[in-house]
Amino acid sequence: MLELDGVAALDEFRDAAGVLWDDERRALASVLVALPASPAGPPDAAIVRDVVGIDREEGAIALSEPLEPGARMAFARRDPVAAREALTVVGERLSPQTAGPGLGLAVSCASRGESFFGHEGVESAYLSRAFDPDVWLGLVGRYQIGTLSCGASGLLTQSAALAHIR
Question: I want to staple 62 with a disulfide (CB 3.0 to 4.6 A). Which of 45, 53, 56, 87 is the partner?
């Protein structure tokens, strides 16, 4: 991608990265691109993809998914504080439902580890509380297949899914 509305794509990416731009690897790991789930779908349904590279000479960024000229997109920044808050809410909702015997199953994106939260085992600790005292199994992958708000299935990154099985 060379430009966005007449501005070099790399300049827009740098603005979206903010203070993360000081560490290019962290910026690439934390700033994502939200693309429409389908051209004719609702405007709030998006698929989030990685920025896989930058070209300083051209002022360009490379995406992990092709994008047609003129297509809508937005930058999204991964937020570990918001992720912790979401884990707390999910854990509070699950705790009353997980009383008694059962198995907790968590499928999480590989990106939600120490590099995201800043500490090892953060997501595991939240899940242990949510599924306590049950046994739980955690699986990690690069992406997941899930349902989008428009009803279609799509590949999702930077996400986690939890289930309690009795």
Answer: 53
Q: Which of 52, 77, 102 is the last residue of a domain?
A: 77
Tokens representing 133 are 């005292």
Tell me the residue length of the chain: 166
Tokens, residue 113: 């580890």
On whether both 129 and 149 belong to a single domain, the answer is yes
User: What are 151's two structure tokens?
Assistant: 């009803």
Reported pTM: 0.59
Q: Which tokens in the block code for residue 55?
A: 């070209």
Residue with tokens 């060379």: 2
Cα separation, 7 vs 71, in Å, equals 15
**Which residue from 32, 49, 45, 157 is spatially nearest to 107, judged by alpha carbons?**
157
The span from the CA of 4 to the CA of 7, in Å, is 5
